Amino acid sequence: MNPEILETKLDDYKKLVESLKSDGFEMMVDLTVVDWFRKKEPRFEIIVQLLSTIHNARKTIKVFVNDEDLTIPSITDIYPSANFYEREAYDMFGIIFADHPDLTRILMPDDWQGYPLRKNYGSGRIPVQFKNAPKVD
Amino acid sequence: MYTPDNIFTTTIDKAVRWSRTQSMWPVTFGLACCAIEMMAAGSAKYDLARYGMEVFRASPRQADLMIVAGRVSQKMAPVLRQVYDQMADPKWVIAMGACSSTGGMFNNYALVQGVDHIVPVDIYVPGCPPGPQSLMHGILTLHDKIMDGEINR
Amino acid sequence: MKSKDTRKTGFDKFKNILDFWATNSEEGGWNISSTDEGSQKMLEEESDKQVKIQTGSDVVDDFIIDEDTSDDERMIVNMGPQHPSTHGVLRLQAELEGEVVRRVKPIIGYLHTGMEKTGEELNYFQGPTNTTRMDYLSPLFNELVFSLTTEKLIGIEVPERAKTIRILMTELNRISSHLVALATGGMDIGALSMMIFGFRERELILNFFEKTTGLRMNHNYIRPGGVAADLPDGWQKDIKEILKVIPEKLQDYDDMLLDNPIWKGRLKNVGILTTEECFAYGVTGPSLRASGYEWDLRKSQPYSDIENYDFEIPVLNEGDVFARWRVKVLEIFESLKIVEQAMEKMPKGPYKVQDKKITPPPRKRLDESMEALIHHFKIYTEGFKVPEGDAYVAIESPRGELGCYIVSDGSSKPYRMHVRGPSFCNLQALPVIMTDSPIADAVAAIASLDPVIGDVDR
């Protein structure tokens, strides 16, 4: 099933979500972020997947957020299920959801520095070394 | 059956070591995939009770052995250390699976690259996840290690 | 019943102890930064506005805060992350009034593995190795959804036999996953025999998996372009054994539990989740079907030709813990039907797509052909290139809608790989289920949602 893709501007984002909810898209199933670091200009792309069980249809909303101003309206008052997803997006990418009831880190420890899933954040790979390993003969 | 009173002589060391191996109670420290295999090892087919360790203790105060089953994240590391410190001496640690031994295939920001960074590990059990047989082999190896070692560690 | 201030100093004291361990640990000398307890604690009082936002406009307000009771009578209790009945490393902060849970906050992230970051470093051929470790009770579903998304991006169709093998294996996996859910759920509530039974029957299926894929769990069997290996010789015999034994054993479970007054007393009318709440919190899978709404992606948005199989969707109306338990039992019967049909109709032919760019040549060809060797080397080191674009594919895992979203930039590695875990979303409904019910029912509520923490934290 191919989801219909709707690209929208930041100002119209919340209105669009509201209108889709009244159109029968009763479930928000996913919210995720793509970091287009040095590839596209508004750096962060936020992708919201909506599902309608009545129409048996899916809709994908795409909205871009600028690197300077990372704020986007929260949709937790429309879809309560967005709560964890928005916290995850904040935790992993640093997107700030305005009017979110509890915007804290969800997966990483609270005192963690940086936003791990950004493209300019290293993967944190520790090289394996066997320098001091005892000799086996 | 009548058994007459018998005397056998042994050393205190041996008796203590033997008793330690025969009722070694593990603390439930299941984290990820390996925890399921640990539960499988404890249930019907593989039956860990044969080695005197069917009681998985929920409280670390009552346990002798911590089986770290699964990947240890940076967020979990202080908790793991706390549970280890709450265990009464003597205590042993088995790192079950590739993730808790070395970090496994996840060499990234989120995981502690081997639980031996946090607690001293006695036995490493390889596998992703190790089967119940591997875990049992690890436990029996630990028993051998205790039988051969010193009583005050 | 501690007052507000002493509770705070309690937290501070705990933090000091934690810092002490972190800095003074002799072994390894690893510097652990303590998690900040202070910022994770709940707000003391929530304003009406926040309550409205948190529960959503369409949901009945479950957070009943009685103004008459003073703050002294409330007690904040911490469950987990190391707790036997929280199914892994889930941590709950519950605010109790006597024995009644007034508010609860799930705190997750204790198993965060960074798999989405690792997924960006592995190519599409290695991808299932990573995704299979997310939901470790239903690994084949994770592989399937990753493979389906990749195949959708490339635009290929796998052969009939591969599709049928995928259906056969995933439905067996659904049975084994539900068996573990029943087993651990029984153990939490006190039916310890159920745990022994559930794990015993699961071994049957795991033996078949081990025969086919080489591993008991984390198989890496379903890969983009088909499956890794053909079914072993004599597989029908094993399937027939499973088809014969499992229904008998399920009958045993029913004999033991269905009319058991203790079981019914613990589960009936406990932890009710209505359909509206399921929609609001994105709850899918058996929990949604137990609330009386017929929604199964296998019927409505089918994948791998599962629409050609004849099976029913069990739906119950109560929405309580008992209904969620019963739906899982009934789903095992339906999955057995699908497995039987898949066994009978198993078509002959290739089990991998016959595209040299995607499928590595068989091992035998490497000894005789130079090109095959080069091909093999290239696929295993470089992987295959996937055209630019993005795709979202969802399938019905044992816990609900399992989705995978992949963005490709034309290279052989995903630019971004995101998995929508059903447990992550279902866990948000936990406060709704647990509020204003006794603390003893909390364990039953968690067990009935059947969250897999690997799927929650990824």
From TrEMBL, chain B:
Sample GO molecular function, one term: 4 iron, 4 sulfur cluster binding
UniProt: [4Fe-4S] cluster binding residues: 33-34, 99, 128
Keyword GTP-binding set for record: no
Swiss-Prot/TrEMBL cofactor(s): [4Fe-4S] cluster
Role played: NDH-1 shuttles electrons from NADH, via FMN and iron-sulfur (Fe-S) centers, to quinones in the respiratory chain. The immediate electron acceptor for the enzyme in this species is believed to be a menaquinone. Couples the redox reaction to proton translocation (for every two electrons transferred, four hydrogen ions are translocated across the cytoplasmic membrane), and thus conserves the redox energy in a proton gradient.
HAMAP family reported in the protein's UniProt record: NDH1_NuoB
Protein name as it appears in the record: NADH-quinone oxidoreductase subunit B
Native species: Candidatus Actinomarina minuta
